[in-house]
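Assess this one:
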Amino acid sequence: MEQAADPISWVFAGECHEAIRREDRFITPTGAHIRRLFLIGVLTELHVLNSRSVEGRVSDPTGGITISVNRSCPLVADHLASTDPPEFIAVAGELAQKGSDEIRLIVDACSTVTRTERDRFLHLCAEDTLCRLEQQNSLSPSQREIARMVQTALAVINNADEAEAPDRTEMMIGIVSSISGPKGAPLEDIIHSAGDAGIGEDEVKAILTRLLEEGECYMPTNGIIRLL
């Protein structure tokens, strides 16, 4: 029997981008069936197209996802338009994809939240993801990558009360600056260069997440980091 789609799913942004569209839902590598998605992250970009149409980007420790609000939700559009990035935000809506374009979230509900609420979401979303992974007989390469995403998310929670060493943070800013092109720097290249400098992947992602939260950089597209 086909698995029923959850009324609303909690899935990390990075896993959403690995989802495959199937009729009225998206199916992720860990087996989540998504019709509606709930996500808490950092609003890193905001573009007010007109009074009733707003686009932006929300990032969590695993990546970012483009969000948009259409004319059918004017109050949501107004609330989002009045939010200044970077800001912790909770969003809910339906995933959408046109052709081979990047998956995006059509938002019909949003609210600003605290870091504590964001951390709680990361913890619960990690639990849900691990439960789905535990149901697999063996992990595929994409599922192993999602397991690493969970580790990255949990590392952010564990380091939430510990300020990054200033030299490490400045080092990361220098690395991003040195390898950036006109559109920014690919995350894979940042991780590789940081590894050469003795900074592990989990620490790289934790530092970048903090820089996103502090408004030092943003993600113009998934997998690209650009300094402000």
